[in-house]
Amino acid sequence: GSALAADPITQRQDVFKDYKKTFGPMGDMVKGKTPYDKAEFAKLAAHLEVISKQPWQYFTPGTDKGKTGAKAEIWSKSAEWKQEISKHEAATAALAKVAATGDLAAIKPAFGKVGQTCKSCHDAFRKPD
Ligand code: ASC
Questions:
Q1: Position 2 in a domain
Q2: Cβ contacts of residue 37 below 8 Å, gap of 6+?
Q3: What is the pLDDT at residue 37?
Q4: Residues 42, 29: contact at Cβ < 8 Å?
Q5: Is residue 77 part of a domain?
Q6: Is 1 a member of any domain?
Q7: Is the beta carbon of 17 within 6 A of some atom in ligand 1?
Q8: What is the CATH number of the domain that holds 36?
Q9: Ligand 1 centre from 3 Cα, in Å?
Q10: CB of 118 closer than 6 A to ligand 1?
């Protein structure tokens, strides 16, 4: 982030940029696009678990206005949104755990599960591109 105090929209978008830098290379390894590197994958998975806890605090009231993909439903259906977050955090924690074992056959479905939690939240709570 910048040295200046960022607005909450920028702060959450900065975390999602970090997601892309983390989840992207993991996906490449899972798909065999790049060689599976046990230590590197486990490091990325541990980082993903950390950042999975970070964006939500920046969805402060009123920040559905402006340059954001956030839908107003984040605030009007807050319980459902929090349920999506819980599922996502549980999936990233499970992935980090299995990534530490280096068992790629077990990593693949755990990775897929995280992707599903990204998608189901986006479907309900993010504006289409
Ligand atoms: C990504 C990405 C997402 C998720 C989602 C998984 O790489 O940018 O939003 O995975 O597409 O279904």
A1: no
A2: 29
A3: 98
A4: no
A5: yes
A6: no
A7: no
A8: 1.20.120.10
A9: 29
A10: yes
Pocket lining: 115 vs ligand 1, CB cutoff 6 Å: yes
Confidence band for 72, pLDDT divided at 50, 70 and 90: very high
Average pLDDT rounded to a whole number, residues 31-40:
98
Task: Tell me the CA–centroid distance for residue 118 and ligand 1, in Å.
Answer: 6
Domain span at residue 12? 8-125
Cα–Cα distance measured from residue 17 to residue 20, given in angstroms and rounded to the nearest whole number: 5
129 pLDDT band, cuts 50/70/90, is: confident
CA 60 to chain centre: 18
Rounded distance, CA 22 to CA 16, Å? 10
Count of domains for the chain: 1
Distance from the alpha carbon of residue 16 to the mean position of ligand 1, in angstroms = 11
Asked, for residue 3, whether it belongs to a domain, the answer is: no
Complex ipTM tops 0.85 = yes
Q: What is the DSSP letter of 53?
A: T
- Given the CA of residue 27, which atom of ligand 1 is nearest to it? 7
